[in-house]
Amino acid sequence: MRTDPRATAAVTGTPPHRTPRRRRKSLLLAGVAATTSLAALGTWNASASPEKPGQESAGSSGIRSPRAQAAQWEADPARGTKVFEGVETKPGEISVVDDPAGRHGRTYKLHTSGEKTDPDERVRVETRGHRTPDGERLRFQEGDTVHVGWRSLWDPLPTAGKNWVALWQLKDYGSGAATPPLSLRARGNGTVDLEYSDPDLKTTELWNTGLKTGHWYDFVVGLTISSDPDKGKVEFWVNGEKQQLKGANSFKGATLRADWVTDKWGVYRSDGVKGPATAYLNSAKVGGSYDDVAP
C-alpha cells in the first residue's frame, strides 16, 4: 500500500498501486472461504450483543468481529438492503437503481423528501451496520483493525449556514454510546470534513475540502478500534490518495466508548437544512487492508 507524505486534502489524483482486479477477486473468495472455515470451528463470537430499542433482532444469527486480514463484507446490490444490519428512514426510502452517472452499474439510492414526520426526530435516511450472506452481524470491537471503503455521489444535497449533514458515521452502540467518534459531514459553506469526537464530546476537524454534488468520490477509512486514545487510530484516503489528518498520516484517538461500533451511510442532518436529498452508495466493503476495500 502506497502512502504519500506530500498528500494534501485534494480529492483528485492518481490512485496508489492496487492488487489487480482478478487477484483481488481471488483474495476475496479466499477470505470468504477462510471465514466459513472459522465459523465451522467455532472461533468467532456467537454471543448476541444487546439490541437498542427499535433495532431489528438477528434471531439466532451470530456476531463476527473482523479480525481476519481479508475482505469480510460487501454491499452486493443483488441482496438489496439485506446486506445491512438495519435501515433508518425518517422519512425516506432505500432502493437499488442504475448509477445515475452511467459508470458503476447497480447502486444503492438513499432518498429523503426532507419533510419531518416527527417533530422530535431529525431527518435521516441511513443504512446501519453490516450483515453477511449467512446472516451474521459484523461489528467492530476493542482491538479490531478494519478498513471501510466505498464510493458516494450526492445529488441533490442541500446545506445551510452553520448547519451540518452527516454522510457517513462511525457510530457506537450499547452502554456509553454518545456522539459518533467519526463523522463525514457536509457544511453550509460548500465543504465536507472528517470530524472526530472524543469521549468528552469535544470535536476536532481532522480534514476538509470542497464538495461537488453529482460527482463520484472514493473513500477508504482505516481504523484501529480502541477505547484507549493512545491505541485507537484513524487513516483516510480520498480518490486513492492518502490524506493528512491534522498534518499527519494518521490520527490517534479513542474510536470506541461503548460496547461496539459500526458505520452508517446516507443523509442525517440538523434541523436548519431543508429540502429533499439523495445519496448514492456503490462498492461498499469492509476488510483488513486498504487493498481489500478500495473502490
UniProtKB/TrEMBL annotation:
<protein>
    <submittedName>
        <fullName>Heparin lyase I family protein</fullName>
    </submittedName>
</protein>
<feature type="region of interest" description="Disordered">
    <location>
        <begin position="93"/>
        <end position="121"/>
    </location>
</feature>
<dbReference type="Pfam" id="PF14099">
    <property type="entry name" value="Polysacc_lyase"/>
</dbReference>
<dbReference type="InterPro" id="IPR025975">
    <property type="entry name" value="Polysacc_lyase"/>
</dbReference>
<feature type="region of interest" description="Disordered">
    <location>
        <begin position="44"/>
        <end position="76"/>
    </location>
</feature>
<feature type="compositionally biased region" description="Basic and acidic residues">
    <location>
        <begin position="112"/>
        <end position="121"/>
    </location>
</feature>
<feature type="region of interest" description="Disordered">
    <location>
        <begin position="1"/>
        <end position="24"/>
    </location>
</feature>
<dbReference type="GO" id="GO:0016829">
    <property type="term" value="F:lyase activity"/>
</dbReference>
<keyword id="KW-0456">Lyase</keyword>
